């Protein structure tokens, strides 16, 4: 399936270093187009292995292309990846971190993570009624007894959230108390996250349908100059889940796995996460209780409403959330500029 969709997929990679890790992915990524977002020093040379089709953007490019709207793109933070989502014109996006490598399944076979993500995204989800055999659309599975026939058609899948072997995705306090933890358990399962349930989205192995949900897949302003970091993907995950629930789309998690090769520094992470460890106790209840009006019929409208409600409800927690809400609005303005419908002239688009 993956090979037939290579004209509909962009792979977005944020990085501060040369991309030698792509050699490991060459058999799976070489047919696709890469969008590389260079974070940090824009004068540093980023080397990309020969044979890959790619475009590379640094901070100078982001400032030039977005002008005054560039302030909605984070600096010195993995959240810079969402600039790649903005400039892409493809239906599907796969984003991966540069410390992630090809994993093997229990039989020893290398896992084509992108192919599995595309399989997840091109098959329906079941957010309204849980199937106890997990994904009923996978080969060799079906709906269990008692599953309503009226719900078996499912809904379009907007997000495919993959997992990781080796280094777990822990927060800094957990890293500090469990420095030797490794994930060695391969669970052969994909499940739809039920409607009304939030989850902590990780961006190191993530794919989504840009046409359905791309406008809400914004990673906020974090990192340099901001009082918060390492919550960029979780913020985007909470936002997109609320929007998917409202619009009737599905979110899947589970397969595919990749190999996460190294843990980030827990002391550096603690400094970035410190405020978030307190603020998440306000953020999560906000997303659990948010209600989007029926007039919001697409991701852009939903996201602007989320920005409005975030400013009202989270602004009193800290002024940072007022700035974040403003950046959410700026992001949608940029999104609509880059994704304006084709103009019609003389009856043809």
TrEMBL record:
Its EC number is 5.4.99.30. It catalyses: UDP-beta-L-arabinofuranose = UDP-beta-L-arabinopyranose. Keywords: Cell wall biogenesis/degradation, Glycoprotein, Golgi apparatus. It is an enzyme of class 5 (isomerase). It is found in: Golgi apparatus. Its main location: Golgi. Probable UDP-L-arabinose mutase involved in the biosynthesis of cell wall non-cellulosic polysaccharides. Belongs to the RGP family. This is UDP-arabinopyranose mutase. It comes from Solanum tuberosum.
């Amino acid at each position: 399936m993956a090979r037939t969709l290579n004209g509909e997929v962009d792979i977005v990679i944020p990085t501060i270093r040369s991309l030698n890790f792509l050699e490991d992915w060459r058999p799976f990524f070489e047919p696709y187009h890469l969008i590389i977002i260079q974070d940090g020093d824009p004068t540093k040379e980023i080397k990309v292995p020969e044979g890959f089709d790619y475009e590379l953007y640094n901070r100078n490019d982001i400032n030039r292309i977005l002008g005054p709207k560039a302030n909605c793109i984070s600096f010195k933070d993995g959240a810079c990846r969402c600039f790649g989502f903005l400039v892409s014109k493809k239906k599907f996006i796969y984003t991966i971190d540069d410390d992630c490598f090809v994993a093997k399944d229990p039989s020893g076979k290398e896992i084509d993570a992108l192919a599995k993500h595309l399989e997840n995204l091109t098959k329906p989800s079941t957010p309204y009624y849980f199937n106890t055999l997990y994904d009923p659309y996978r080969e060799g599975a079906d709906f269990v007894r008692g599953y309503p026939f009226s719900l078996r058609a499912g809904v379009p899948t907007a997000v495919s959230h993959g997992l990781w072997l080796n280094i777990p995705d822990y927060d800094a306090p957990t890293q500090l108390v469990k420095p030797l933890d490794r994930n060695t358990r391969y669970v052969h399962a994909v499940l739809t996250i039920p409607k009304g349930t939030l989850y902590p989205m990780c961006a190191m192995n993530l794919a989504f349908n840009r046409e359905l949900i791309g406008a809400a897949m914004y990673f906020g302003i974090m990192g340099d100059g901001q009082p918060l970091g390492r919550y960029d993907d979780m913020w985007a995950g909470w936002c997109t889940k609320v929007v998917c629930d409202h619009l009737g789309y599905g979110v899947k998690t589970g397969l595919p796995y990749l190999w996460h090769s190294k843990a980030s520094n827990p002391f550096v992470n603690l400094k970035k996460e410190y405020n978030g460890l307190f603020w998440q106790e306000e953020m999560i209840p906000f997303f659990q209780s948010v209600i989007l009006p029926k007039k919001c019929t697409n991701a852009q409208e939903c996201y602007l409403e989320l920005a409005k409600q975030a400013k009202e409800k989270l602004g009193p927690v800290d002024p940072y959330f007022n700035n974040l809400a403003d950046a959410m609005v700026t992001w949608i303005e940029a999104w609509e500029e880059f994704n304006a419908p084709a103009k019609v002239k003389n009856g043809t688009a």
